[in-house]
Write a structure and sequence with these properties.
Layout lengths: L8 E5 L3 H13 L3 E5 L2 H10 L6 E5 L7 H11 L5 E5 L4 H9 L4 E4 L4 H16 L23 H8 L1 H6 L4 E4 L6 H10 L8 E5 L5 H9 L16 H4 L4 E5 L6 H13 L1 E2 L8 E2 L3 E6 L3 H6 L5 H7 L2 E4 L7 H15 L11 H9 L5 H15 L2 H23 L13 H23 L4 H8 L3 H10 L6 H4 L5
Parallel strand pairs: 1-2, 1-3, 3-4, 4-5, 6-11, 6-12, 7-8, 8-11
Antiparallel strand pairs: 9-10
Helix pairs in contact: 2-3, 14-15, 14-16, 18-19, 19-20
């Protein structure tokens, strides 16, 4: 990471202290000196009095006292050629067009990625140093975020309704394997919606324990639990008026699903440890690689929550089902990551064939990593040889699993006694569930059928976690 000064100074205009601190640190790591301002009024004052002069302005759009658009207008009246990069959490087409019309040099959407910030700032300075009149015409704003247009018929059908789905307020469930671009698609829907100028927040339901997911979603009051030293708003509050993506919704804890369903139905909730009811207006999108219909059968996902989320269902196909997209998409990713304009080795017909034959189990994410690696090593033949070797290793591993004798346990390290106990617990669970279903969940009658004491049945249900499944199986619980 760089630390030497490069003689360039950046005026950072951002009202959120945490974001301002992050951006300031990122710019200083690249060798830029940084002046900071919390709003447009302070920014204009700093610009007039700065010594040495400011080399570039990084300007947020939504700010108190004076927003970014008005500040940009004043900057252009002071210095018509000073580079200005606009930053916004609502990177809609309207914002981009309006910013460019007022003289912005480029546009970044929040959250700002460090690598993207570095590339855009560097490109702006390089273009400025190369004499603007003779420099090549710069791509439109958001060029680094341009959406790839697929040639696959299934993907083209999905992309044809993006605007229509984005503009609606309906919940969207996006399904597909890991790496197919579910989050990218959700952000595209948000950018084309009436909520584009409002926040887009993502919560990964599989990345945290269920207790932390709950506190992150709904927030908490001071003293709600050990370590809660002050009130903290949750994602629902922060996303009010905007969109929230619940990523990996299929991995959400079963008990937490009931509370989420309540919020989706009533648009209100209480913070952990709080008594005040909070009303929110948030559009929900959900994404998962799981088969939710199978999860409902296995009683790990609530059926009522599934139908609440599944108003519009989009399945993004894996890359192996869109082989005609592999080479064009790779070329698109090479252009996206080739910010320095270095040469890219040509893809020979043999390399193209190898790329098309490979299954890409990591989907677009794996293909993007391949593109970045190719830009560094510049040896497509060597990299395709690595893909071929990787495919052979996967095939051997798959064959080894398929050839394993049926009597051989999958986990040979599991002690025999533990396997016996698991089998016993499963048999008891099946017997109790059968009796409960036969009696419409009348536990006293079920105990009579099983010929055990009523309290013994309650104990076994608690021990085997059968209580958690009652809500799914029947509302008639005695």
């Amino acid at each position: 990471m760089k630390s030497e000064r490069n003689g360039k100074s950046v005026l950072l205009v951002e009202d959120e202290a945490e974001v301002r601190s992050y951006l300031e640190m990122s710019l200083r790591c690249e060798g830029y000196s940084v002046e900071s301002a919390g709003d447009g009024v302070d920014a204009i004052t700093c610009l007039r009095n700065a010594s040495p002069p400011i080399s570039l302005v990084l300007l947020d759009i939504a700010m108190p006292r004076q927003d970014g658009m008005e500040t940009l207008r004043q900057i252009r009246s002071i210095n018509p050629v000073l580079p200005v990069i606009m930053v916004s959490g609502g990177s809609s087409t309207v914002n981009v067009v309006e910013a460019m019309r007022r003289g912005a040099t480029d546009f970044l959407g929040k959250p700002v990625d460090y690598e993207e910030l570095r590339k855009v700032v560097k490109l702006v300075f390089e273009t400025q140093a190369g004499n603007l009149p003779n420099a090549p015409e710069k791509a439109p704003a958001q060029s680094s975020k341009t959406v790839y247009v697929s040639v696959n018929p299934i993907m083209r059908d999905i992309q044809s309704v993006v605007d229509q789905i984005g503009w609606s307020e309906a919940p969207v469930l996006i399904q597909g394997e890991t790496g197919v671009g579910k989050e990218v698609f959700a952000r595209q829907l948000h950018a084309g919606s009436p909520r584009a100028s409002k926040p887009f927040l993502k919560m990964n339901c599989a990345a945290l324990p269920s207790e932390l997911v709950e506190s992150e979603l709904f927030g908490y009051e001071r003293g709600a639990f050990t370590g809660a030293f002050q009130r903290k708003p949750g994602f629902f509050e922060l996303a009010d008026g905007g969109t929230m993506l619940l990523d990996e919704i299929g991995d959400m804890d079963f008990k937490l699903q009931a509370k989420l369903l309540h919020v989706l139905q009533d648009r209100e909730f209480q913070r952990l440890g709080g008594k005040d009811t909070i009303h929110v207006d948030v559009r929900i999108m959900a994404a998962t690689h799981c088969d939710l219909e199978s999860a409902m059968v296995n009683r790990t996902f609530r059926e009522d929550l599934y139908y609440r989320l599944n108003v519009i269902n989009l399945r993004l196909p894996p890359l192996r089902e869109c082989r005609e997209d592999i080479v064009p998409l790779l070329e698109f990713l090479l252009r996206k990551h080739n910010a320095q304009g270095s040469g890219v080795p040509p893809l020979t017909p043999q390399v193209r064939q190898e790329l098309t034959l490979y299954d890409w189990p990591g989907n677009i994410r794996e293909l993007e990593n391949f593109a970045r690696k190719l830009l560094v090593l510049k040896d497509p033949e060597k990299l395709t040889d690595e893909l071929r070797a990787k495919a052979c290793r996967r095939a051997r591993a798959t064959a080894a699993v398929e050839d394993r004798p049926q009597s051989e346990p999958l986990n040979v390290r599991t002690p025999i006694l533990e396997q016996v106990n698991r089998a016993k617990d499963q048999a008891e669970t099946d017997a109790i569930l059968a009796a409960l279903n036969a009696t419409l969940w009348n536990r006293k009658r079920a105990a009579s059928i099983l010929k055990i004491d009523y309290k013994a049945l309650l104990y076994k249900m608690k021990k085997l976690s059968i209580e958690d499944k009652i809500v799914l199986l029947s509302p008639a619980i005695t």
